[in-house]
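Posted in: Structural Biology > Protein-Ligand Complexes

Title: Requesting predicted complex, coenzyme A in pocket

I'd be grateful if someone could produce the 3D structure tokens for the following input. Sequence and ligand are given below.
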Amino acid sequence: MIQGEKVRLRAIEREDLPRYVRWLNDPEVMRYFGIYRPSNLEDEEAWYASQRADDSSMNFAIETLEDSQHVGGCGFSHIDWRNRSAECGILIGERSRWGQGLGTDAMRTLVRYGFQQLNLHRIYLRVFEENQRAIHIYEKAGFQIEGRWRDAEFRHGRYHDIIWMSILSDSPDRA
Ligand SMILES: CC(C)(COP(=O)(O)OP(=O)(O)OC[C@H]1O[C@@H](n2cnc3c(N)ncnc32)[C@H](O)[C@@H]1OP(=O)(O)O)[C@@H](O)C(=O)NCCC(=O)NCCS
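-- Reply #1 --
Done. Output follows.
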């Protein structure tokens, strides 16, 4: 279990999966997210089993310290153990808990774990340009914008630019 100031990151349990199904089918939560197909419990169970057996990914449930509520998930994918880099992602699925600092704390905690426990050197992510809330929390955690893929994703009737951001283990502005 990995402790932050407002959240802890813990292993995902099978009983958590119905909540992921609910979040992944919430259009507001998924507005700027890579996944575009509706998912069901069977999909989530398959994902759960595959990611546990995959050394290049590591996923956590985000739970509040205040009331031990499971509010979201975060983790690493594309872990490259030779170059010590990984992609990260985050989702606070309970919309009623947005704006309470949970996403910021979860991201800082995840990054700290990546550098201090996994010995990563570079953590990167992709985000829709319009997802300013997410970009804001990434910048607060010390991520810098490093590039843009123009018109990379088609959603909501038009193309969107994808922003790439990263943080290095020796970044001076690491949170
Ligand atoms: C993005 C997400 C993780 C943020 O989590 P959160 O718990 O709401 O974030 P926090 O409460 O820690 O911080 C939100 C910050 O964004 C700011 N913010 C809110 N709306 C904003 C907007 N439209 N533009 C810029 N900043 C905004 C808030 O003021 C706050 O910053 P502050 O603490 O400096 O005042 C959450 O909204 C989420 O999971 N969204 C859906 C999934 C998603 O988009 N994930 C990211 C995919 S790349």
